[in-house]
Amino acid sequence: MGYPFFQPLLIPTLNANSLEKDGYWKSHSNEFDTYWQTRAEEAAKDNKAAYFKDPYSVSGNFTSSVSELIIGKDKRRNLKGKKNHDGPCMATNPIDRCWRCDPNWADNRMKLADCVQGFGRNTVGGKGGKYYVVTDSSDENMVDLKPGTLRHAVTRDGPLWIIFERSMVITLKQELIMTSNKTIDGRGVDVYISGGAGFTLQFINNVIIHGIKVYDISVHGGGMIRDSETHYGFRTQSDGDGISIFGSSNIWVDHVSMRNCYDGLIDVIMGSTAITISNSHFTDHNEAMLFGASDSYGADKIMQVTLAFNHFGKRLIQRMPRCRHGFFHVVNNDYTHWEMYAIGGSKNPTIISEGNRFIGPDDINAKQITKREYSPESVWSAWQWRSINDEYMNGAYFVQSGPELVNRPFSRFDMIKAKPGTYVGRLTRYAGSLKCRTGKPC
């Protein structure tokens, strides 16, 4: 491909069950030394800067772009092509339309950074930096890192666009602690993060994770682990999340396939914000996503997350997501399986469910999509949980609350006019890790 090889320089983790206990931050703050306390203060400034003061405008803009793609200016569906590459490329949603049909994507990988939408729309990852080619799937030494490994790549200073020389299975011996301004780009090969620990994005910003598979993630014991070129320190036991986003901002997770992690698939906690999770496929898990760790942690009020074009598939039970405090735009996702509920929360989160398809389970007692926790109806009835043009199937139903959305934030110009939920199968058709091959559209 002709990429320059970046010559590497030689030079308290969480458990989600305990996350939900009030006072988490107070009880665990002593795990952070001066270095991590400084990182936390810097990240808090970045998170505040990434916060959108008018979140409705962001979600409204997103809705308009989806509407234009689906309906088109002539109000006819603009969905052509075949599922395989024998026919024209079919980029079925506005994020994919930005890059997927370019057969020369491999020569212009960083164009991907221009395609994110939603609350994470300012994320550019490693754009503008060098390419780092991962050549070695091993993960042995946690401090004196081996050049060419994924762990070595994600702990380097400055922006990097990380790609892979070949298909590989990477079993992480401990949590993979990343630094800011990184893109992990698995396109063109098959990258499996499996059988070990998961990703930790703690007190950082500007990260893209794209085109990989993450599954069978387990708890690991901790110890001395490098988290940057110039620092390593002692970490407690990892939590078993696939991707843990902790006090971080401007994060985009796209076209990732995930299943069977010890704790959550993706957790977003401790004041994280400006996050988009899109085009991904989730299966085989109990508590899929936790957005907000503790009822008592009010700093999560700045949390803003977009969930778009994802497929929540087989053998999922609950938390798709489970939210606290913040603002969550859940748009054009396909919910084909749950056993308890799909979307839940506590502590007055704003949840705008728009254009999703919800196929209820056969269990007559689990048809309700929503679940409010730890509050009586006299309290949660004021929470802003609205369903806009969702499609309900097999008896599924969404219990709305809060004042009806009139004029602003969603004007008639922002709304998708044809029931968008009926198009979700097409919009999410390519959810999950893609089979991208050089010289062909993905």
Automatic annotation (TrEMBL):
Residues 167-364 form the Pectate lyase domain. It comes from Vigna unguiculata (Cowpea). GO terms for molecular function: metal ion binding; pectate lyase activity. The keyword Ribosomal protein does not apply. It catalyses: Eliminative cleavage of (1->4)-alpha-D-galacturonan to give oligosaccharides with 4-deoxy-alpha-D-galact-4-enuronosyl groups at their non-reducing ends. Keywords: Calcium, Cell wall, Glycoprotein, Lyase, Metal-binding, Secreted, Signal. InterPro entries: AmbAllergen (IPR018082), Pec_lyase (IPR002022), Pec_lyase_N (IPR007524), Pectin_lyas_fold (IPR012334), Pectin_lyase_fold/virulence (IPR011050), PEL (IPR045032). Its EC number is 4.2.2.2. Its cofactor is Ca(2+). GO terms for biological process: pectin catabolic process. It is found in: Secreted, Cell wall. It is an enzyme of class 4 (lyase). PANTHER family: PECTATE LYASE 18-RELATED, PECTATE LYASE 6-RELATED. Binds 1 Ca(2+) ion. Required for its activity. Pathway: Glycan metabolism; pectin degradation; 2-dehydro-3-deoxy-D-gluconate from pectin: step 2/5. SMART domains: Amb_all. The keyword Glycoprotein applies. It holds the Pfam family Pectate_lyase_4. Belongs to the polysaccharide lyase 1 family. This is Pectate lyase.
